[in-house]
Amino acid sequence: MATVRIPTPLRAFTGGADEVTIEGTTIDGVVAELGTAHPDLKARICDAEGKMRRFVNLYKNDEDVRALEGGNTAVSNDDVIAIVPAIAGGLQ
Prior knowledge:
By secondary structure, the chain is an alpha+beta fold. It is 20% helix and 23% strand. The chain has a single domain (2-85), classed as Ubiquitin-like (UB roll), CATH 3.10.20.
């Protein structure tokens, strides 16, 4: 099972857990299983079509999955997947 790190703003959807373990052989598979285990969390990171929202980044072992193979990126039991919501704003 891969470990998925949950950022603070999304922990309410995992019962407060900062990490969850999820089955899956690809990023898409992990996200699908994450949605089964925590449906409200998936709704925050994926759109209605199941695609990752553009303001949410997923990292596999510190590498952005978009720079790898996206949803088809292979995942093994020792991998750590981090959900990183984008932060916008700045000085005016």
